[in-house]
Amino acid sequence: MTEQIMESITNPVKCKLLLEIYSQGQATAKHLSNILGDIPQATLYRNLKKMLNDGILKVVEETQVRGTVEKTYALAFNLNGDFEAILAENSGTLYMQVFMQYLLGFAKQFREYCKSPNINIKEDMSGFSLSPLYLSDEELTELMKSISGIIKTAAKNEPKAGRKLRTMGVIVSPPENSK
């Protein structure tokens, strides 16, 4: 299923559907059509059917509405895994689900920000970057301790004038295979 999830995230229409269903917990096609008005109805239904067949979505409710059945969709997999259990089991599938929750959480925040009429990317200092680094395990450990220390210090800041609540995420990718 990992391949289908990745395809859903990289497909612009499926990604919008996935993010809205994740944000709401569940949604009907009517709700999705109202919120995502830029997606033609036939495209919306085609993608919902494909995501349902791929096991990305499941139908959690069916309601009779004027001679037709309205389906309510939800994610077909649990993104709220117990991280300690994932480490103990060393499960790539579960680890990927937790990573998807992390990405979707950030995507939800960025989506809300990008919908804002007052968006000012430069002034708001929003951004993201990748920094490929050659590090030994020891160097990576020290770098993560340093970053963690800086973040812990900033996390103690109290709300006050001039401060804005921001979310910072750090991702350390698995090592690339050396050849």
* Top-tier CATH class of the largest domain: Mainly Alpha
Query: CATH homologous superfamily of the largest domain?
Result: Winged helix-like DNA-binding domain superfamily/Winged helix DNA-binding domain
CATH topology of the largest domain: the name is Arc Repressor Mutant, subunit A
Biggest beta sheet summary: 3 strands, antiparallel
Shape: globular
CATH architectural group of the largest domain: Orthogonal Bundle
Residue-averaged pLDDT: 86
The separation of the N and C termini measures 28 Å
Fraction of residues in H or I helices:
40-55%
Could you tell me the strand content as a percent range? 5-15%
Total domains, how many? 2
Structural class given helices, strands, pairing?
mainly alpha
Rg over CA atoms: 20 Å
Q: Give me the count of strands.
A: 3
Provide structural commentary.
- The protein folds into two domains: 2-75, Winged helix-like DNA-binding domain superfamily/Winged helix DNA-binding domain (Arc Repressor Mutant, subunit A, Orthogonal Bundle); 83-155, no CATH class.
- It has helices at 2-10, 12-24, 29-35, 41-53, 83-89, 92-115, 121-124, 137-155; strands at residues 27-28, 57-65, 68-75.
- The protein has 179 residues and is mainly α.
- A hairpin with a 2-residue loop joins strand 2 and strand 3 (68-75).
- It is globular.
